[in-house]
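Predict structure. Chain length: 526.
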Amino acid sequence: MKRDPIHNMLEPGLGQGSIATRRAWLIAAAALAFAVAWIVFGYWRTGASMVGIWARSDTFAHGFLVAPISAWLIWRERASLLEVAPQPSWWVLVPLTGAGAGWLLGELGNVNAVAQFAFVAMLVLAVPAVIGTRAARRIAFPLAFLFFAVPAGEFLMPQLMEWTADITVFALRLTGIPVYREGQNFHIPTGNWSVVEACSGVRYLIASVVIGTLFAYLTYRSTMRRIVFIGFSILVPVIANWARAYMIVMIGHLSGNRLAVGVDHLIYGWVFFGLVILVMFWLGSRWREDGVPAIGPERSFNWAPGVAAPPGEFLLVAVMVAIAAMVWPLGERLIEKSDAASLPALSAPVSIGDWRADESPLTTWRPQFQNPPAQLRERWQRGDAEVGLYVGYYRNQSADQKLVSSDNALVRSSERDWIRLGGGVRTVEVGGHPVSVRTAELKGPGEDRLLAWYWYWIDGRLTASDPLAKVYTALSRLMGRGDDSAVVIVYTRDKRPGEAEATLERFMRDAGPALGKMLDDTRARR
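Prediction complete.
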């Protein structure tokens, strides 16, 4: 006698649902495969950008494993799924449409993480939309695990670097070693050290959270134990990275800088991290519960499997999922087409009150903003006062050419001649209006020091906030005004306390209107 196709995929004793339920699952699985494939096809650029980051970044290389692990976790629950009759949940189309809108805003604002999270959210939401929330609850964790495929977390890097430098310097002083610190750089009697991106520990943190979350799901049944272990998988790598940084400096110090200063620096770090994680898992396994049978909320109440939806309903909801997902890429293409404009050209003012322009640079320092289509770099003088001005203007922004990016900075950590000592936020008068600007203290060769103020201009709006700059860019594009944006940086030599601030304040009062008009005129010539 010929056996049912679904029954053939099951081990003996698994899947006690009716033949009708199993056949409904075949149709539901086909409809879901169609919906997922359609979303992947419509958002292939977003998916490709994620894969590209996995391929070139060691921090996010785990992304290649997320989907296979999720599929394996779902396969483990196949018997449990067959106990529930699939029934589409139409209301899930509402949050799925919202995820599509979030993707559009992420694309318009050039926020890759938002667009990628929205893309994964649409894939995840397509599952309960087609098979129903009752069935989807049984594979809730494998579906949520897919979000680890999004290469996000580098925004934590500056704060982690700051903490690592603080703790390392504190521990060195506690050990009795004198330390002189300048920003993320510090000097001890046997050598100089810097806390760069690789020292932030973000790689350790992300790896620990991904592995720790999977370990907690597979090892524990109690929700509280899972939460506690995931909490430890966040806390332990951060503390371990502080210990690693201190250990590396001490090894270098005690060995006369013969050890822990080259490739072995990274090797010692990964070996230490590996040992810490192994100890964490060993301790966590002492309270394991994976030998205890899992009792889901539905099975504990002996709920009936229910009645499967008609075959046509699965196909209809899959088509609706495809429609709800595809409207947003079409809208984005229309906006991109209307946004397209010629390359910008900045026309700098010849004079600003008593200030006079000079083409020679104020210092050797150059802001590290990548690929602006137009830029302006000048020195302005008024008596003995000198101010440097830099404007980077962006239009037709893309992943490789955008205003707000982790690649853009005043000074890169790898730069040798200039370092950033500190900074903050303050309110200054720009064009007669109070505006919050970022401040930065920079140190160059010898005793050359600069005070810099900078902010963003987005279609006439001024802000010092990266997230707000992204929001303003998305709103401008939605309103059909394009993505014209600029960074404005003013800086002067910091010789005596209070003098640099006074110089920049005077320049901004005088130059604010002229700079605003220059940017507005450039925008008007789109």
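Summary: Residues 223-254 form the longest helix (32 residues).
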